[in-house]
User: What shape does this take?
Amino acid sequence: MTYDDDMKRRLRRVEGQVRGVLKMMEERKDCKDVVSQLSAVRSAVDKTMALVVAVNLEQCIREEQENGGDTSKMVQEAVGLLIKSR
Assistant: This one.
């Protein structure tokens, strides 16, 4: 699978968010603010995972269809990955 620049950019943004949360903790910011930022980090990671799975699934389905294969198992595996990640 090829990981495009958008995926990498998303993860760099998450990396910056995590550094920001660490800084908030070091500055002893309010719990609600820290948890709010952690929630934003989790959301960003979840969206990135969904993008990675979707792009990979699309590529795999195209290849499988070209070979005349059944794609239903791939879809089930992709959904399983997303469910497992939560």
Observations:
- The radius of gyration is 17 Å.
- Residues 31-66 form the longest helix (36 residues).
